[in-house]
Write a structure and sequence with these properties.
The protein has 73 residues and is α+β, with helices and mostly antiparallel strands. It has a single domain, classed as Ubiquitin-like (UB roll) (Roll), CATH 3.10.20. The protein contains 1 helix and 3 strands. It has a 3-stranded antiparallel sheet, covered by helices on one side. The longest helix is centred in the middle third of the chain and has 15 residues. The chain is globular and about 30 Å long.
Length: 73
């Protein structure tokens, strides 16, 4: 299993400031595509209080190998 850091943009219907709010996920997976799916599922579960949330609504804006903890913005 490889470690990945995935940054996703919150969907407009969940964001207070659309285009500025992101979700960072640290996941482990066999490959990048599976890591992205796992990250989207994590983000949707973290926002499950909204019944309309779908994992694919979290748009990936960055993905890399490894768990990166010190991201600057």
């Amino acid at each position: 299993m490889k470690k990945f850091t995935i940054i996703m943009l919150y969907p407009d219907y969940l964001a207070h400031n659309y285009g500025e709010e992101t979700y960072v996920a640290h996941v482990e997976s066999e490959d990048l595509q599976l890591a992205i799916r796992a990250a989207q599922l994590e983000a949707s579960k973290a926002n499950a209080e909204n019944e309309t949330v779908r994992p694919v609504d979290f748009a990936v804006i960055f993905a890399c190998d490894g768990h990166i903890d010190d991201l600057l913005y």
